[in-house]
Design a protein that fits this description.
With 63 residues, the chain is an alpha+beta fold. The protein has 1 helix and 2 strands; from the N terminus they run ββα. 17% of the residues lie in helices and 19% in strands. The N and C termini lie far apart (26 Å).
Length: 63
């Protein structure tokens, strides 16, 4: 049976803060650390992908 739970970003591998799903335009998604940029001093950010699911999967694969 397939797992139908929505994918959620893992915590940041560098600082342990939650990953946040971000969006720009109609089909650019990425996940970044909640402490990225103005929110703190962590510099971890994922690659841009075409779907939310791809962005979360990419983030989770490297974290």
């Amino acid at each position: 049976m397939a797992d139908n739970k929505p994918a959620t970003p893992k915590r940041c591998a560098k600082c342990g803060s939650p990953g946040e799903l971000m969006k720009a335009g109609s089909n650019r998604f990425w996940v970044q650390c909640a402490k990225y940029g103005r929110n703190g001093n962590c510099n971890v950010i994922g690659a841009q992908m075409e779907t939310k699911k791809q962005a979360i999967e990419r983030w989770n694969a490297v974290n």
